[in-house]
Write a structure and sequence with these properties.
Blueprint lengths: L1 H35 L3 E6 L10 E7 L4 E10 L4 E6 L1 E3 L2 E5 L9 E10 L4 E9 L1
Antiparallel strand pairs: 1-2, 2-6, 3-4, 3-7, 5-6, 7-8
Length: 130
């Protein structure tokens, strides 16, 4: 009986070591995948944006590991930056609250850049008639 118990403990130690090794391998593969893949800006929701300070742009961005940050810049048709800043993470999305009032009807482009933990960046631009 003592020998069977000892064998079970040895098997338990082996299984624990194998499991720990597999977990470390899995984490390493996740980090490698994150290093190889840039984030994606999936959607820029401008439905609540009317060119007024305090309006919200809602951004959906994804990555195989984690989106570390999202930056937003609003440009006029000539490319001049009208405002820019960091979006904040909330409920699985990123929100950018605008700070400037724009003239009614001014056409703009909204440039969103997502960054992942290794520092890869992806930018998506969407136009809107202000």
């Amino acid at each position: 009986m003592a020998q069977a118990r000892g064998s079970a403990m040895t098997m338990s130690r082996v299984n624990t070591a194998q499991l720990k090794n597999r977990c470390e391998t899995g984490r390493a593969l996740l980090r490698l995948g994150d290093f190889l893949n840039a984030p994606v800006v999936d959607q820029i929701d401008v439905s609540a944006y009317n060119g007024k300070a305090g309006d919200t742009l809602r951004i959906t961005a994804s990555d195989d590991f984690e989106v570390a940050g999202v930056e937003v810049a609003i440009h006029d048709t000539g490319g001049a930056v009208l405002e820019h800043g960091a979006a904040t993470a909330a409920d699985g999305h990123w929100n950018y609250v605008t700070t400037a009032d724009l003239p009614p009807g001014q056409p703009i482009s909204i440039e969103v850049t997502a960054t992942d933990r290794p520092g890869h960046k992806t930018t998506k631009t969407q136009t809107k008639q202000g």
